[in-house]
Write a structure and sequence with these properties.
This protein is an alpha/beta fold and about 260 residues long. The protein contains 9 helices and 10 strands. The protein has a single domain, classed as Rossmann fold (3-Layer(aba) Sandwich), CATH 3.40.50.
């Protein structure tokens, strides 16, 4: 990595920490967006057993780690935003869940030995990373040969709308970088991990746009872009629709799981 690339990455990491420190409401409470979405996944990271140690990369407030915890020996969650880790740790303490370890760390430089985990998973995070391929390679490195790496992330429905989607998403959340197309995500994981065993498009999530606005959003600019599309303007990739006085937007996600090559 060049000095310029390193500086850009460090600057973006600071943006991520600031952005998510100001979005904790999306992770707090049983009806929070990420709590609800996690519950809908129904152990999408695949079969697990009581002797397994699993890693949740860019774990946020540890909702998916919590979901895995009753089924495995140990879950380790890594995230670079201390505010989210504390939010998750408090919830886990209140629920008496004691086999989840939360650590501050960088998904692109995981501080673990090679082949440390039976399953490595990452949900809704790659699109925040300037070099997601490095994070995927790190997930493969720390996964045991024959283990699984499972990634669930937001995607663009077509190359035609990706740039517009990314631009508007940055207006809503400046920590956003870029989404993959579904086939690109699969190809990246296959190249860095091994044979694909699962590749599915998840059920689209339609939600009121006001629900996802936080203190980091330029609400007026986002509303203007969506209203322009509703009035016949250029597509944003958010597929806005009116429901009474509310504007709904739709997010598409893909899930890809691969077996770690030996």
């Amino acid at each position: 990595m060049t000095t310029e690339d390193s500086t850009l990455t460090e600057n973006h990491d600071a943006v991520v920490r600031d952005s998510f420190s100001r979005q904790t409401e999306l992770f707090t409470g049983e009806k929070a967006l990420f709590a609800r979405y996690s519950a809908a996944t129904d152990l999408w990271f695949g079969p697990v057993g009581p002797d397994m140690i699993v890693l949740d990369v860019a774990c946020g407030a540890a909702h998916t780690a919590e979901q895995a915890a009753p089924h495995v020996r140990q879950v380790v969650g890594v995230d670079m935003t201390p505010a989210l880790l504390e939010t998750g740790a408090q919830r886990l303490r209140e629920k008496g869940i004691d086999n989840v370890l939360l650590l501050e760390g960088d998904a692109s430089a995981l501080d673990f030995l090679d082949a440390s985990f039976d399953v490595v998973f990452c949900r809704a995070a790659l699109h925040h990373m300037p070099h997601p391929e490095k994070a995927i390679a790190e997930m493969a490195r720390v996964c045991k040969p024959g283990g699984r790496v499972v990634v669930n992330d937001m995607i663009a429905v077509s190359a035609h709308v990706r740039d517009a989607f990314d631009a508007l998403h940055k207006v809503i959340d400046p920590s956003h970088v870029r989404v993959y197309l579904a086939d690109e995500l699969g190809a990246e994981i296959a190249a860095n991990v091994g044979p694909i065993e699962t590749a599915v498009l998840m059920e689209p999530l339609q939600i009121g746009v006001e629900y996802i606005f936080t203190d980091v959003a330029d609400r007026d600019a986002a509303r203007a872009a969506l209203q322009a599309e509703l009035s016949g303007g250029p597509a944003t990739g958010f597929e806005p629709a009116r429901q009474g006085e509310e504007v709904l937007v739709t997010f598409h996600t893909a899930l890809v799981g691969a077996t770690r090559a030996s």
